[in-house]
Amino acid sequence: MSRFFFGLANLSPVSDVLAHKRRRFRLFSSSLATTTPYLSLGDTLKKDSPDDCTETRDVVFFDPVKEERLTVTDKTFPQELVHSRQIGSSHGWGLSRDGERSVCMSNVYHPSSPKSNPEIIPLPSLTALPDNQTGVVWNVAMSSSSPSDDDDEDCVVAIKFLGNQLSLCRPNRDLRWTNVETLGMLETSNLMYSERDQRFYLPAPGGNALYSWDLHLNKSPELHQVVFRDLPELAESEWGLLDMVCSRTEHCYLNKRERNYAQGYPWSEKFKYMIRRFMVFREEETPQGRYMCYTEDIGDVCIFLSMSEAFCVQATSCPGLRPNSIYFIGKGFGIYSLADNKTISSFKVPSSSGLYWLPPSCI
């Protein structure tokens, strides 16, 4: 099996740069689906029904193949979701919160979910560990795409909060969350799940180490070292810009064949964030051991980055996607070509919150 370990750095407004640098990491899952991934752009109220406390909304998506918006009309939002807000997404399932503690999962924002009867899975109330908080969610990861399947006993939902708390539970089984206090340096690390390893991962700042937890919800993590070499040949001034001005984010992608690592460098011009550079490293076996080696060719693969669990799609499985490219939303919104080392398409960043790439599906 191989991995793409992947990083993104942002050149922030000067005030942000002087204040701090944010380092984040992400692990990718892969998909061989024959349909299109979509970016969730939120919803608009169409009609409310006071009698049953439901609402009818139009849900808006971005189609990366046609590079245009797509609207799924007349979706029913049950009472449980009317006053809630989405706080995360994984495998096309959204986590929503109503108030401070009440949480549920739903597929209402999935483009292929039923219009009139979306699935809703209540989750235990959230509780904060001492000196931690559950008000701000950093990201969400899941070990399965079928949390509503009663036969899937290994499905675990995990929430990484801003700070040092990681909370895990099994939907429809656990009556409370298992809360884990992570190391202080992992405050803004992105939670990731490896299907191969059956473990949740949090990368350390700099990307040289990963901390992991198993599905048995054991609180003690394992430490995994990551070694890089063959860095790209860049001018000293460029390295200085990336190092001193940009904030960097690392991501890790695993599929059944290989492991890869990438670093991306977004920056801002006139307070508008742009991508400066992405770097991808492929895991290679050498006589000296395993190393992450720089590459500008990930073949037929497209990587999708947002605040949801990142994933990868083969371009040939979805005609119209651009191979060897990264589709990103967050610090900018566009398509980055690894072969050309530049953003080849840019789009206006939507003003709505909850911008999550959803795995391939059929509308």
Rg from C-alpha positions? 20 Å
- Mean pLDDT across all residues, rounded? 80
Question: Treating each run of at least 4 consecutive H or I residues as one helix, how many helices?
Answer: 3
Sheet/helix structural class: mainly beta
Task: Kindly estimate the percentage of residues that lie in beta strands according to DSSP.
Answer: over 45%
Number of DSSP-assigned strands:
28
Low-confidence stretches: 8-34, 255-259
Distance between the termini: 32 Å
Q: Tell me the helix content.
A: under 10%
Largest sheet: 12 strands, mixed
Shape annotation:
globular
Oligomeric grouping of the chains: single chain
Written overview of the protein:
- This protein is mostly beta strands and 363 residues long.
- It contains 3 helices and 28 strands.
- The chain has helices spanning 14-19, 79-82, 236-244; strands at 2-11, 27-31, 36-49, 54-63, 68-77, 85-90, 93-98, 102-106, 120-123, 137-142, 157-161, 165-169, 178-181, 192-194, 199-203, 209-214, 222-225, 228-229, 246-255, 259-269, 272-286, 289-295, 301-305, 311-314, 325-330, 332-337, 342-346, 356-361.
- Strands 1, 2, 18, 19, 20, 21, 22, 23, 24, 25, 26 and 27 form a 12-stranded mixed β-sheet that branches. The chain has a 4-stranded antiparallel β-sheet with strand order 5-4-3-28. A 4-stranded antiparallel β-sheet has the order 6-7-8-9.
- A hairpin with a 2-residue loop joins strand 21 (272-286) and strand 22.
- The radius of gyration is 20 Å and the shape is globular.
- It comes from Brassica napus.
- It holds the Pfam family Beta-prop_KIB1-4.
